Amino acid sequence: MILHRLATYSTGGKTGYGAVVDGGIVDLSTRFENEYPTLREAIAAGALTKLAEDAARRSPDHALEAV
């Protein structure tokens, strides 16, 4: 499994969290908003592996320059 850096970010006036990957950020906050509304809650739930595995299957949603 590839380990990604997770980050909280802001874009378009909205704060979210995601995985920093080659080419940008995979938005995990919209995909997991019901389970983990914040990155802090995902960490507390021990869900980092779950988030990393999901991010590994996706292309970036946001360019790094956009956040």
Question: What's the total helix number?
Answer: 2
- Report strand order across the widest sheet: 1-2-3
What's the mean pLDDT score? 93
- Compute the CA-based radius of gyration: 11 Å
Number of domains: 1
Shape: globular
Biggest sheet statistics: 3 strands, antiparallel
Task: State the secondary-structure class.
Answer: alpha+beta
Percent strand equals: 25-35%
What are the secondary-structure elements, in order, as H or E?
A: EEEHH
How widely separated are the two ends?
26 Å
Query: Share of helix among residues?
Result: 10-25%
- Stretches where pLDDT is under 50 for at least 5 consecutive residues are none
Number of strands: 3
Features:
alpha+beta; 67 residues; 2 helices; 3-stranded antiparallel beta sheet; single chain; 3 strands
Please provide a brief summary of the model:
The chain is α+β, with helices and mostly antiparallel strands and 67 residues long.
Explain how this protein is built.
By secondary structure, the protein is an alpha+beta fold. The chain has one domain. Helix content is 22%, strand content 28%. The chain is built from two helices and three strands; from the N terminus they run E-E-E-H-H. It has a three-stranded antiparallel β-sheet with strand order 1-2-3, with helices on one face. The radius of gyration is 11 Å and the shape is globular. The chain starts with a strand and ends in an 11-residue tail after the last helix. The mean pLDDT is 93.
What's the helix and strand layout?
Elements: E1 5-11, E2 14-21, E3 24-27, H1 39-44, H2 48-56
